[in-house]
Design goal:
Elements: H1 2-17, E1 38-42, E2 47-51, E3 60-63, H2 66-72, E4 76-82, E5 85-94, H3 98-103, E6 107-112, E7 115-121, H4 132-136, E8 139-141
Antiparallel strand pairs: 1-2, 2-8, 3-4, 4-5, 5-7, 6-7
Amino acid sequence: MKSFTLALLLGIPLMASAQMRPGTHGEAAPTPEPMKRFAWRDEAAGYTFVAPPRWAGKVKAVPLDSKALATSGATSGVRFVAGSKTLLVLLSSDDERAHAMASSGARELSRHDGHVVSLKTEADSGELALTGEELASAIQWDGDAPGTAVR
C-alpha cells in the first residue's frame, strides 16, 4: 500500500506534464498579420489622409518643396507617388489662402475650423486611382469621429 501511494504521488506530476497544451491539437495559434493601411498625417493643419488598403506598400508620400508650395499658395503639401508616377497632390492652407490654391488648379476637398485641404489629381492613376467616395472619406480631421467627412 505504501508503494502504491508513493507511486501515485510521484506519477501525478508526470501525468500533468504530459498533458497537451490548450488549442487545436496542442498547436500554437498563428501569429496575426497586421492590417494593411495607408495613412499620412499633417500635424500643422490637423488632419490625417487615409487611403484604401490597396495603397499600402505601393505608394509613398513625398513632401512638397518650398518652390512648389509658393506656386500653389499652400502652407503645406505632399505628393503621393507610386514608382515615378504622381497619383495626387494634397495641399493645405488657411481660409485666407484658399483662393490662391483654387487659382493654381487645385479643387477643394475638405474644410474644417479655418483649414482647407485641396487636391490635384493626375489623369492616369490606373488601379491606384481613388474614387469620389474614397476621396470624400479620406480626410479625417482632429477631434472628429473616424469616417466623418467634413465639407
